[in-house]
Q: What sequence folds into this?
């Protein structure tokens, strides 16, 4: 399995690399410090199945940066790993194509559990986000992300 770590802080990437290696013994880990490096790596490396993506990068931050990456590598499952824990940001990331959202404030054992769920094809979201009531402006029907997943499933792609 190949996993791409995208974070502009080398020290955080090193810690994440150790954690991912402990969860997945036979994993090839690729690293990028910028959005440009991440998209280039994703395009030229076959078989990357998971990307752990920091939301704040020097160029292409936030959900817009995530959309750019998803356009470059739509087949890669993206898990946002971010210091931001705002419900609206989490919702925007899911709408932009994130499979899951993991706060950087989680303890290592919590991140390990989250990674295991994601690798099993399940969605992981922070508990406070799951417990929060939907905003009053929340509309009925499928979100843009849900429509993307539905289209991918209809093409036979995995979740």
A:
């Amino acid at each position: 399995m190949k996993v791409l770590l995208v974070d502009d802080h080398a020290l955080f990437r090193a810690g994440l690399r150790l954690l991912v290696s402990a969860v997945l013994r036979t994993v090839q880990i690729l690293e990028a410090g910028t959005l440009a490096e991440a998209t280039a790596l994703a395009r030229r490396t076959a078989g990357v199945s998971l990307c752990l993506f920091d939301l704040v990068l020097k160029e292409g931050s936030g959900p817009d940066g995530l959309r750019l990456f998803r356009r470059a590598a739509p087949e890669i499952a993206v898990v946002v790993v971010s210091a931001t824990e705002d419900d609206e940001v989490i919702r925007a990331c899911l709408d932009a194509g994130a499979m899951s959202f993991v706060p950087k404030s989680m303890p290592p054992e919590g991140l390990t559990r989250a990674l295991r769920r994601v690798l099993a094809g399940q969605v992981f979201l922070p508990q406070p986000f799951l417990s929060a009531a939907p905003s009053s402006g929340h509309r009925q029907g499928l979100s843009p992300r849900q429509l993307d997943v539905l289209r991918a499933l209809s093409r036979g792609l995995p979740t």
